[in-house]
Design goal:
Layout: H1 2-15, H2 18-22, E1 25-31, H3 38-44, E2 53-55, E3 66-72, E4 75-80, H4 89-95, E5 99-107, E6 112-119, E7 122-127, H5 144-151, H6 160-172, E8 185-189, H7 202-207, H8 209-217, H9 220-237, H10 244-252, H11 260-279, H12 286-304, H13 316-325, H14 329-345
Antiparallel strand pairs: 1-4, 1-5, 2-8, 3-4, 3-8, 5-6, 6-7
Helix pairs in contact: 1-6, 5-6, 8-14, 9-13, 9-14, 11-12, 12-13
Length: 347
């Protein structure tokens, strides 16, 4: 039963809470037309099987290119500490050559997650969470039947991650048991990881490439003014005018991009405070949803603050704004597109 599967992973995470923060990516590779071994997985990841070591446990301070592997019958399980090779589309294509791959990534710090399914070198389905109503991939609905019984369980936020891991087990028949990490197991450092494909910058550009392109084609004042217009709406709607970061971002956007060297501390403090408000509210209550949307609005402001050494435009501000504005987003998106397109047409 799905409930039993979820309960098993809930108990596992209670016993080993460090798995939530330190081993966020689990991947199961199963053979279809070609054998799958630990050495073969290392080769497909761009590593050297001659460099495989046998280690006990894992080091959260180790390089992010470390992968931990376990042969489970004909399948290989891969665990990553503070990394996510297993959900990268490039990696999924290589790993799923003659094989099927299911992977789960969990971002405990920002509440984001990914579930991926690939087969024969193709990304079939990609979910950003179990309740994702806009899945990606060549066959977005492929996981719908298996996740249907689990989606209702995510009404309890404490079950989100256990339910996600349970879905991987339902699809693969392989139970993700962390006990092997504490025993000698194959481990390898990927010194030449598979390079990224060309891709849009950030989550928003990946989900709304058209609007992202329009904004980036506009001049910088137009782009900043468009973001400021959305953030003004969020500040009023979510009662954020009293937040120092909010006022600083709105003031700075009139003439420049807010820089993390000035606002990083305020951004971090606000994110923690708004997240705690969500966590301290009753599960799935109207109050919790209100605080969740307020947290997403706050994250939109935080996403606008950029590294002064990286002047890329913070399009993910709009990803968080979309989460906060919900049903109002289509009209707001249309206005953003109009503003960007109007500026471009007058050049």
């Amino acid at each position: 039963m799905a409930d039993d599967d979820v309960a098993w992973y809930q108990r596992l995470l209670e016993v080993k809470p460090e798995l939530i923060d330190e081993v966020p990516c689990w991947t199961v590779i199963q053979p279809l037309t070609k054998p799958v071994t630990v050495a073969e997985v290392v080769r497909r990841l761009g590593g050297d099987p001659a460099e495989i070591e046998h280690r006990t446990g894992w080091d959260p301070d180790a390089p992010t290119s470390v992968v931990h592997l376990n042969q489970v019958g004909p399948a290989v399980v891969m665990a990553e500490v503070m990394d996510a090779e297993g959900i990268r589309e490039e990696v999924l294509r290589w790993l799923s050559d003659g094989a099927v791959v299911h992977s789960s990534w969990w971002g405990s710090g920002n509440g984001r997650s990914f579930l991926c399914y690939a087969a024969f070198g193709r990304l079939m389905t990609q979910l950003q969470h179990l309740d994702d109503d806009r899945p990606g991939g060549e066959q977005p609905e492929a996981l719908d039947e298996d996740r249907a019984a689990l989606r209702g369980l995510t009404d309890d936020p404490d079950l989100d991650y256990p339910a996600q891991l349970a879905l991987v087990e339902r699809r693969t028949g392989v139970r993700l048991d962390a006990a092997w990490l504490d025993q000698p197991h194959p481990t390898v450092v990927l010194r030449k990881p598979i390079p990224d494909d060309p891709r849009p910058p950030g989550s928003f550009a990946a989900t709304d490439t058209d609007l992202a392109a329009m904004l980036l084609m506009a001049d910088e004042p137009t782009h900043r003014a468009a973001l400021r217009w959305v953030l003004d709406l969020l500040a009023d709607e979510q009662d954020l005018r009293g937040e120092p970061l909010v006022n600083a971002v709105l003031d700075t956007l009139t003439h420049d991009w807010p820089a993390s060297k000035d606002l990083g501390q305020e951004s971090h403090a606000m994110n923690i405070r708004l997240s705690e408000e969500v966590n301290n509210s009753p599960g799935m209550s109207p109050e919790r949803w209100r605080r969740y949307y307020r947290m997403r609005a706050g994250q939109a402001f935080a996403a606008t603050v950029i590294d002064p050494n990286d002047r890329s435009k913070p399009l993910d501000t709009l990803w968080y704004a979309q989460q906060a504005l919900q049903e109002r987003w289509p009209a707001i998106r249309a206005e953003l597109w109009r503003r960007a397109r109007h500026q471009r047409s007058t050049l």
